[in-house]
Amino acid sequence: MDERSVHDRDLDALIGQPLTPFRRVVLAVSGGSDSMALMVLVARWAASGRIPADVLIDVATVDHGLRAESAREADWVAERARALGFRHTTLAWSGEKPQSAVQEEARAARYALLTAHAQAGPQPAAIVTGHTADDQAETLIMRLGRGSGLDGLSGMSPARPLMPDSSVVLVRPLLSLSKSALQGLLVRAGGTWLDDPSNDSLDFERVRLRAADANLEALGLSNAKLALSARRLSRARQALEVLTQEKLSALVAVHGGSYASLSRQAWAAEPAEIRVRLLARLLDTFGGFARPAQLSQIEALEEVLAEGRPIAQTLGGCMVSQGWTTLRLYREPGRQALADAVLEPGREILWDRRFRVAYRAPEEGDVEARPVSVRPLGLAAYATLRDALDDAERPPARAAATLPSVWCEDRLLAVAGLPGGPLTDARFIFTFLGFDRVT
């Protein structure tokens, strides 16, 4: 694609293909040149008549409240969004602001606000950002400086689920274009943009990198070459992910989502890189909303497991135990309180990133239908059920204690992940999300 301009014939490949799988599209527009160009390009695509009738598009601006001008800037974006025919919403980051790691905390708050906003409408939903090839190059250098592995050095992916069931996905359609190309597009379209003064502050890592652009270019580390490396590394990462998925299917049993188990001999036969990736996927799948494990922690645990001796260790919200023949992993019950959620008839919820729990809509005249509570089963309740389970399907008690269960006041109605268990209620459907989700 010609970076100097984006022709109408390019819009289907650049904008249409990434966005048409979604029922709702939320454009994250801050007012900077990248996001303003994104809004103009999506408006051109929408005006082309090729947009599916059931795709809803709106614009959201996050007001972080870190500068006095931020509210006025959000209003400025709103005016231009409405002029292009888009509905606009300002999402305010309220409450006390952090004193350190401000950009990291602001980023986390921004995606949390955008995700909640996207969840309020039809799904699947896309949150669309204006990240460019320049951002990709900067990301690669920053991650290289932190000693990142292949996944980190692959850079930002064009699409990444923000929810484990892919109901909300972060989409970056402009990664092939440079910032200068987008600014040129805006100028030719008669548009303008806002310059964030924080982009001139050397307190921030990205700003320091941009200040070093000329030196990096002289060393052959141009943004274009770095972005090319990221694309090639991403290709290798995708191949490893396919292999990892195949190994998960072939080697790992998930026991209804109560715990994962695999043969230690089969585990040991895999290369170290595949063992690390298997462990990372297991931790992500069973760790729920716990803080994710870092790569260095996963590598350290893999090295301990590779020694072959029996151990039990916690990491990433999971208990990992290795016996002489079997490796087991399940949600850790005690470190972080698990959710206690209210579920209404006819609704469904995502519980601890592991299960989707649905409550069938009541039939006409069903006076018994009323809200229920979804919470972890607990050790005491499991003790009343375990003797009725088949020995071969009986999970470890601490694993069973973390399963979602449905209660009406103090009466237990149903439990997920206990095949052949004594409690079944057709009104409630438990779906373990498993390994098929993209992470």
Concise structural overview:
The protein has 15 helices and 17 strands. It is α+β, with helices and mostly antiparallel strands. The mean pLDDT is 88.
Share of helix, binned: 25-40%
* Total of helices: 15
Largest sheet, spatial ordering of strands: 3-2-1-4-6-5
The chain-level mean pLDDT equals 88
Q: Could you list the spans in which at least 5 consecutive residues all have pLDDT below 50?
A: none
What does this structure look like?
The protein is of the alpha+beta class. The chain is built from 15 helices and 17 strands. Helix 2 crosses helix 7, helix 5 packs across helix 8 and helix 12 packs across helix 13. It is globular and about 75 Å long. The mean pLDDT is 88.
SSE layout:
Blueprint: H1 11-19, E1 24-28, H2 33-47, E2 56-63, H3 70-83, E3 87-92, H4 102-119, E4 125-128, H5 133-145, H6 150-153, E5 159-161, E6 168-171, H7 179-188, H8 205-211, H9 213-218, H10 223-251, E7 260-263, H11 264-268, H12 272-286, H13 295-306, E8 311-315, E9 318-322, E10 326-331, E11 341-343, E12 348-351, E13 355-359, E14 372-376, H14 379-383, H15 397-400, E15 404-408, E16 411-415, E17 428-432
Parallel strand pairs: 1-2, 1-4, 2-3, 4-6
Antiparallel strand pairs: 5-6, 7-10, 8-9, 9-10, 11-14, 12-13, 13-17, 14-15, 15-16
Features of the shown structure:
globular, 4-stranded antiparallel sheet, alpha+beta, 439 residues, 6-stranded mixed sheet
